[in-house]
Amino acid sequence: MLMQNDLLTEINVYKEGATLLGNIYVAKVKNVVKNIQAAFVEIENRQLCFLPMDEFLPLALLNRSYDGRLLEGDELLVQVKREAVKSKEPVVSCHLSFSGKYAVLALDGSGIHFSRKLPEQTKKDLSAYFKQAGLKENLFLSNPSGEPVPVSAVIRTNAGNETDFLLIKEEVLKLQNAAQEVLNKGKYRSCFSCLLRQPEAYLTEIRDTYESQYDSILTDDPELFRQIQEFFGASYPEEVKKVQLYEDSRLSMSALYGLESKVKEALSEKVWLKSGGYLVIEPTEALTVIDVNTGKYSGKKSIQDTFRMINDEAAVEIARQLRLRNISGIIIIDFINMDRAEDRDGVMNRLKMELKKDSVPSAVVDMTPLGLVEVTRKKIRKTLKEQLA
């Protein structure tokens, strides 16, 4: 759970060893479905997964030389990019990536790139440092035939909080070694083998959360406390001091933060705003609809100023609710109608600004002629409701 200003901002429910997300396997193609430009592949325990053809890389093919075709029975390296959702299988990709706190190494593209959320001056300083260190020239792997394969490194937002650039460089090189090890093992391991199993999901969740969004990591479980300390101690020793064990026997940590009621609120259809307005959040099979209402608000502002104020407050709360409930895919928001163009632009900008705080990629697409705002958020994990079910 991520708490900010006494508000529950993010929550995920984990069962030990239950998630496949991020794991890398030697998969076997069960069948290729040309009319949907995809293939179905099997991984560990014969779990069936969906592979879009635009996520296939010839580099990943293990059993033969690539001749322009992907065939039934082919063996290839894949990584789970999206968990199984409802009746849909997990989604896999041959575009393997290796994540750290400061960087992500990917087997597609080449060179060094930067998160859009990093300050421009930080990007310039890091570029100069990497150039001096010769990092870009050394960013490549060897494929199973021994030929060099260029890779790309994306420097993450967390790098903006680090003044010692050597730590960032060392992490990139560490990820490069991990990627090479996977490619080397892939040549010799049998079908359905797991070549890289991610740490427990709660550990990667902590690692991937923006540093600027939390001051401490708190748990009341001594075993989890030990595991988190070990995880950070091995790779990010400077973070160990943030890990704390809650030991007050008089009041449980859950009661202290009112977690039970906060989770209940996170599953409610109606969300009240401080102004007296409210949101109605209704998930459907195809998309999620969010309606903004004036509710109990009674103030002295003009009607258009009232609508702008409630919509502005709603934009902030909607961004939080998307993270909290892990709502993904297509989201349609019906804000209260605003006559003034500057009010509409202001609310749209506020929504975009708030969505940038989310570590899951999301985007405000547009406002339709009917005044409905279209938002998309990348599907990675199940919704909170599905996780709790």
Give the amount of beta strand, in percent: 25-35%
Q: If helices are DSSP runs of H or I spanning 4 or more residues, what is the number of helices?
A: 9
In total, the number of strands is 22
Tell me about the biggest sheet? 6 strands, antiparallel
Tell me, what's the shape? globular
Proportion of residues in helical segments: 25-40%
Q: How would you state the average pLDDT, rounded?
A: 89
Residue runs with pLDDT of under 50 for 5 or more positions: none
Termini gap? 17 Å
SS-based class: alpha+beta
Provide the gyration radius in Å. 23 Å
Descriptive account of the structure:
- This protein is 29% helix and 26% strand.
- It has nine helices and 22 strands.
- The strands form six sheets. Strands 3, 4, 5, 6, 7 and 14 form a six-stranded antiparallel beta sheet that branches. Strands 17-18-19-20-22-21 form a six-stranded mixed beta sheet, covered by helices on one side.
- Helix 7 packs parallel to helix 8 (341-355).
- The radius of gyration is 23 Å and the shape is globular.
- The relative contact order is 0.11.
- The model has no long low-confidence stretch (mean pLDDT 89).
Give the secondary structure arrangement, pairings included:
Layout: E1 2-4, E2 7-10, E3 24-33, E4 38-42, E5 48-52, E6 75-82, E7 91-93, E8 97-99, E9 103-106, E10 111-114, H1 120-133, E11 140-142, E12 148-150, E13 152-155, H2 165-186, E14 194-196, H3 201-208, E15 217-219, H4 222-235, E16 243-245, H5 253-257, H6 259-266, E17 270-272, E18 278-283, E19 288-293, H7 303-325, E20 329-334, H8 341-355, E21 362-367, E22 372-377, H9 384-388
Parallel strand pairs: 10-13, 15-16, 19-20
Antiparallel strand pairs: 1-2, 3-4, 3-6, 3-14, 4-5, 6-7, 8-9, 9-13, 11-12, 17-18, 18-19, 20-22, 21-22
Helix pairs in contact: 7-8
